[in-house]
Amino acid sequence: MTNEDTLIIGGKKLKNRLFLGTGKYGDHRVMEEAIKHAATQVVTVAMRRVDFENEEEDIVRLIPDNIILMPNTSGARTAEEAIRIARLARASGLGNWVKIEVISDQKYLLPDNQETLKATDTLVKEGFVVLPYMSPDLMAGKRMIEAGAEVVMPLGSPIGSNRGIRMKEMIQMMIDELSVPIIVDAGIGKPSEAAEAMEMGADAVLVNTAIATAGDPVQMARAFDLAVKAGRISYLSGFGSTSLKAQASSPLTGFLD
Amino acid sequence: MTNEDTLIIGGKKLKNRLFLGTGKYGDHRVMEEAIKHAATQVVTVAMRRVDFENEEEDIVRLIPDNIILMPNTSGARTAEEAIRIARLARASGLGNWVKIEVISDQKYLLPDNQETLKATDTLVKEGFVVLPYMSPDLMAGKRMIEAGAEVVMPLGSPIGSNRGIRMKEMIQMMIDELSVPIIVDAGIGKPSEAAEAMEMGADAVLVNTAIATAGDPVQMARAFDLAVKAGRISYLSGFGSTSLKAQASSPLTGFLD
Amino acid sequence: MTNEDTLIIGGKKLKNRLFLGTGKYGDHRVMEEAIKHAATQVVTVAMRRVDFENEEEDIVRLIPDNIILMPNTSGARTAEEAIRIARLARASGLGNWVKIEVISDQKYLLPDNQETLKATDTLVKEGFVVLPYMSPDLMAGKRMIEAGAEVVMPLGSPIGSNRGIRMKEMIQMMIDELSVPIIVDAGIGKPSEAAEAMEMGADAVLVNTAIATAGDPVQMARAFDLAVKAGRISYLSGFGSTSLKAQASSPLTGFLD
Amino acid sequence: MTNEDTLIIGGKKLKNRLFLGTGKYGDHRVMEEAIKHAATQVVTVAMRRVDFENEEEDIVRLIPDNIILMPNTSGARTAEEAIRIARLARASGLGNWVKIEVISDQKYLLPDNQETLKATDTLVKEGFVVLPYMSPDLMAGKRMIEAGAEVVMPLGSPIGSNRGIRMKEMIQMMIDELSVPIIVDAGIGKPSEAAEAMEMGADAVLVNTAIATAGDPVQMARAFDLAVKAGRISYLSGFGSTSLKAQASSPLTGFLD
């Protein structure tokens, strides 16, 4: 069954549904190992962290060739800024995928859906594969899709908070109603939460802080890989029903009667 | 790291922390496959379901030899009944492990901690490796240990309800305070919930209904195996801290300034 | 203390923080009694339910004179439709308050923040006191305020679902960050949930289904009145701290030592 | 309706369902005011805090005559100690009600159900009205009742933690299945949580830390009084049903069609 379970984004067939962020790693070698142990196929990098002049320090050169690089527009506060960053990324040879982040709130770092929609609209027309990071909102998700978004990426809870899927109610409605893949991005702090997102029917999750700030990031990456697979396989397998009362495993006649 | 991560119960070294129940399977072949895909090393069987006269139908003969059989006293309503069932199991050649279940409540099938403690006390003295199934209660857990229980098995929610770890608060206190392995038994309905139990620090989980009543029990068994491993590995790796506010992945100076 | 605790909206001083909806009542007399027992000062009525030709059946005539009538644009699927309904309401002598509802999703009845913002912008310029009903989203809330919204009304969970405050995370951020009153509207199913919204710091709640479909709507209205007051008073009183461990009420030296 | 809604314990008819503890108050006058504003009819006092030799400081003399005094055995680590404290209380003229607390765990202060049961059994035979404080456990509750407990008092979460009703699952089962009044005691930190306990069907709640450590304990006492009444009235009124989808307040045909 799972051999054929692929996720298609921007024409690429993906088998692994755990995407990784690259911020907050104390050490580049650890990040490389974490990427490997997560068995990830898509990695996001903030354009502002790309150091084109210093090859030694360039984070992009650390990403293996077989992994899709998804530059993000972190640092953009308006649609216009996000658009400029996206163009710069493509011009720099980083491909045509872009994760749009437009954030002007400095406390919770919540995305601005309206500006994100504007940037999505423009960049889709310019031929980008656009993956908008957004506050969970069903109607805003519909508009992202109308504008040509390849997927939608609702946040589980504020970036880096490790608080899990606090916006479950709205994310479930998005999963149930929207026609593109849903990638839960931000807030996932533990493998169980990644598994839960997949059990809800999400198509993928993006994890950064939970792995980068773990005691052992490499083992944590491996744990997330297993959890995402567990969640996906179980979702496809079909859950038994839940009940308020107990359901005996076998007839309740006394054994010794 | 995980090569050495073993759980020792009754002198046996276990590498796999997912225990399985054997009730509710529609078909014996499916159960055999599920056991295999769960990579389980311990399986529990209700003594009342053992059919000594009909070898063809005997559930015990379906369990591979390398798997530890843990007969349970399901159907017992008193300590005395549980003790008799345990003795019968050992006399039948099923080994000296016994999971004690004493249940007189017919609606929620909640275990009776007081009678369970009595049975534990007696059976430990008779040389059994006793694993009591119990309502989560820190003080009752302490007494089970004083009586010689090898582990304690608090329920997450009522048997067969698939409602998850509803007794989290008390189970966490048991994990933090008790000196024997904690196995969360009953109520776990999804792989994410099994992972969560392991992330809380549980030593193992026992799953039955969630797998046996899944659309595809064999794939669901595999998903639970992955989830338990994910939870365990992440627990050992050390979680990053959670925060109410967002934590940026990189400095928040505007990229284009 | 609470004598002076007033909420000011559109220049009106309100002492009571429970707003009521008028849908789903089986009987007009019950609705009148519920309004009275809720001690409410603001009531919302769907313009489409106003029957200008049949005085006998006109819901508006049932609302006591001392209560502020807030017509809503229920049934509008676009900003334009909401604007037309609002103008019609004012022209009909229903005052200049308007609760904007723009809903095109027929399953979850989720508001469309983008169209709602457009309608808010236009109607504020036309002199209305605008109270937009919206999906919880901090940045969208900021824009509503920039457009001149008098308050923002995020939903707790889908209209009529009685599921409580499922969007707690985002609503708390809106309460903490936004400069206008926050009224939690939709989804509140029990008095405890209304109290919780007030404890979180919401300025008011709007309740309809939970009262209208209760076994005894009049008593339920009274219960909600008490709960909203309880939540508000406790919020103003200042909560003690929470802790993971127990905190003894008195020194733990043994009494009998 | 509510005029006749009384709770009978030990032959006393109670109209108010909020019981108070007397620990942790910074000032005796504040405690007196809080008791008054909570409209409470039952107050518990730790026997070890009763100062028989110093009338000026004696907490018991501060409790108004029309309030039932319920001495508690706080400080007892065994059944025997609890029994001695109870006898001492009665011999001192504090009446024949006793709340049994037997706690040997010093971190979470969790009650010891087994010792509590022993003390209950003995004290009931000696004519006390016994109200056992216990860890939530349906079967242990049944035994308390068999031993003659007048009510059972399961904890919501550890004493003084202000964490709310974390043991909801088990408390709901106790409410549904047990034949005596259920009083949720310990852990309730906010009025909404008290309301929730009453909505679940609890017969009363006991609150101490949340009021005593509030910024304004007197107003907080008033808030709890309102919340308990709100929860009780709503429970008696009958809740409308909840649903996963939205339920429109009126027909969803467009208004302007």
From TrEMBL, chains A, B, C, D:
<keyword id="KW-0808">Transferase</keyword>
<feature type="binding site">
    <location>
        <begin position="208"/>
        <end position="209"/>
    </location>
    <ligand>
        <name>1-deoxy-D-xylulose 5-phosphate</name>
    </ligand>
</feature>
<dbReference type="InterPro" id="IPR008867">
    <property type="entry name" value="ThiG"/>
</dbReference>
<dbReference type="InterPro" id="IPR013785">
    <property type="entry name" value="Aldolase_TIM"/>
</dbReference>
<dbReference type="GO" id="GO:0009229">
    <property type="term" value="P:thiamine diphosphate biosynthetic process"/>
</dbReference>
<keyword id="KW-0704">Schiff base</keyword>
<feature type="binding site">
    <location>
        <begin position="186"/>
        <end position="187"/>
    </location>
    <ligand>
        <name>1-deoxy-D-xylulose 5-phosphate</name>
    </ligand>
</feature>
<protein>
    <recommendedName>
        <fullName>Thiazole synthase</fullName>
        <ecNumber>2.8.1.10</ecNumber>
    </recommendedName>
</protein>
<feature type="domain" description="Thiazole synthase ThiG">
    <location>
        <begin position="9"/>
        <end position="251"/>
    </location>
</feature>
<keyword id="KW-0963">Cytoplasm</keyword>
<dbReference type="InterPro" id="IPR033983">
    <property type="entry name" value="Thiazole_synthase_ThiG"/>
</dbReference>
<comment type="pathway">
    <text>Cofactor biosynthesis; thiamine diphosphate biosynthesis.</text>
</comment>
<dbReference type="Pfam" id="PF05690">
    <property type="entry name" value="ThiG"/>
</dbReference>
<feature type="binding site">
    <location>
        <position position="160"/>
    </location>
    <ligand>
        <name>1-deoxy-D-xylulose 5-phosphate</name>
    </ligand>
</feature>
<dbReference type="GO" id="GO:1990107">
    <property type="term" value="F:thiazole synthase activity"/>
</dbReference>
<comment type="similarity">
    <text>Belongs to the ThiG family.</text>
</comment>
<feature type="active site" description="Schiff-base intermediate with DXP">
    <location>
        <position position="99"/>
    </location>
</feature>
<keyword id="KW-0784">Thiamine biosynthesis</keyword>
<dbReference type="GO" id="GO:0005737">
    <property type="term" value="C:cytoplasm"/>
</dbReference>
<comment type="function">
    <text>Catalyzes the rearrangement of 1-deoxy-D-xylulose 5-phosphate (DXP) to produce the thiazole phosphate moiety of thiamine. Sulfur is provided by the thiocarboxylate moiety of the carrier protein ThiS. In vitro, sulfur can be provided by H(2)S.</text>
</comment>
<comment type="subunit">
    <text>Homotetramer. Forms heterodimers with either ThiH or ThiS.</text>
</comment>
